[in-house]
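Section: Multi-chain targets

For targets with more than one molecule, the full set of components is provided together so that the structure can be written out for the assembly as a whole rather than chain by chain. Components appear in the order listed by the source. The example entry contains two components.
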Amino acid sequence: MNTIELEKIAKKIRMDTIKMIYKVKSGHPGGALSIADILAILYFDEMHVDAKNPQMPDRDRFVLSKGHAATSLYAALAAKGYFAREELWTLRQYQSILQGHPDMKVTPGLDMSSGSLGQGLSIANGMALAAKLQKKEFRVYAILGDGELDEGQIWEAAMTAPQFRLDNIVAIIDQNGFQINGTTDDVMKVASIEDKFQAFGWNVLSIDGNDISAIKDAFQKAKNCKDRPTAIIAKTLKGKGVSYMEDRCEWHSGVPTEEQYQLAMQELGGNE
Amino acid sequence: MGTTMREVFGKTLQSMKDDPRLVVLDADLGSATKALMFKSVCPERYIDVGISEQDMVGMAAGLSTCGMIPVASSFSVFITGRAFDQVRNTVAYGNLNVKLVGTHCGVSVGYDGGSHEAVEDLAIMRALPNMTVLCSSDARETEVMVRAAYDYKGPVYMRISRIGVPDYHKPDYVFKIGKGEILREGKAAAIVATGIMVTEAIEAAQLLAMEGIEVTVINMPSIKPIDKELLVRVAKETGGIVTAEEHNVVGGLGSAVAEVLAQNTPVLMRFVGIQDKFGCSGKPETLLEEYHLKAQDIVRAVKEIAKTAK
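Its structure, encoded as tokens over all components, is:
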């Protein structure tokens, strides 16, 4: 898919994310908006998946390790056709197929539940290992938050992927620079994420994580890299696309007022 | 003394090597849990993740969603404690087909001391929705339990002990998840035991019989789901139940039995088990005595309630 079409999809994901949170008055917009471009490319360009056959055995897998960003993932899944867009407005409500954090038991197209941070990379490694053992070609993608890197399990998994030569896994680190209590530098300095993954033996790529062509290019480079897993350090803007949310820690979770909602929709170019 | 449960665990895994879905995961304790035995027959599906139980359980979860059947093992304290959130939020919440095996449970671990002696694993695993909880009592039961856990679709936690115990099961013993086993019948009271306490319960019944007190003895390998029907029946027949487990009396077998009986057939109960204490170092046999986990302790408990029961 070309860049312009992908940009359109990313925009749609952003609008639906804001609309969902505004309608149900609950959710985490900041970290959901930062990964909208990556999700658009994953589901509409990169991953081998079929919305009509969500359990297709040889499909590529996706793990949203930073589960609180569920809204933009749900918007992407709806856009892809896994379920009706109307379901989005049931987010976080009783008996909804869209739980507050991803629940694979109820949402079509979800490959893994998440919500407790730090677990996604190990799980993705397990999926990638399954592909190797079964001699299958499917690839595994995981989006991790940079705040989430505080969790020790991430670094256990960072050692495991190169150990088992899982070159079919791509870990995308959404480096938006914030966690709940402040900037990642203020709360817990992770220092150079690049150096750390490199030291563990990963193929490391640093990109602008809100730049469609840069993301596409990185995924291609990841495919060309054999014998090593790839970590894409994606520098993003938390709240990307909505001026008053951009780079603002307080929009980690929060609900726009009606005025703010209208402004967000205007800025995202929507007229729905 | 027969083969230890751990050796049977390792041998059973070896015998299952031709099933391409089986992946054995280890966190650098395979030589103690005996999971390492699988490596010699199937190195490609023996995955040692190093000393990282959380990563191991996460990997197992990922593998399970792609059609593999992972068997992850470690000491009971680590696989249920160190990796609790991974077991809770990923394996149990996702209702994933992951088998968790915890060895070295209870004070019979011995010299390693309290840090390595799980007294709470049954309680915390039992409290997780979707989780099936099993506890083996001898070599034969370990073998059939590993196979039953493997064939069952869903998350399972299985507990086996470090020390050897006598093999009391015949080779044709059939184990079913959710079923208890009557080993002896009597009217004065019933002893419901699990794990290495089953052989103590059998001995206790023999000692009681010498005094003219005939008791029912039940092996309860399936802690969750538990055999409600059998428990209600023996409670009605005997009027008093003593549970016996090498686990804290809070939340384990005794609690599970009490939960059933309190709602159906309330009878007087006694709980033989670890009395809300951590373990410590020592010779296993010494610790079992000091923690009151011997046949004599069961005898004493039976006498307390048999008196008032009939």
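The CA atoms of residues 204 and 210 of chain B lie 10 Å apart.
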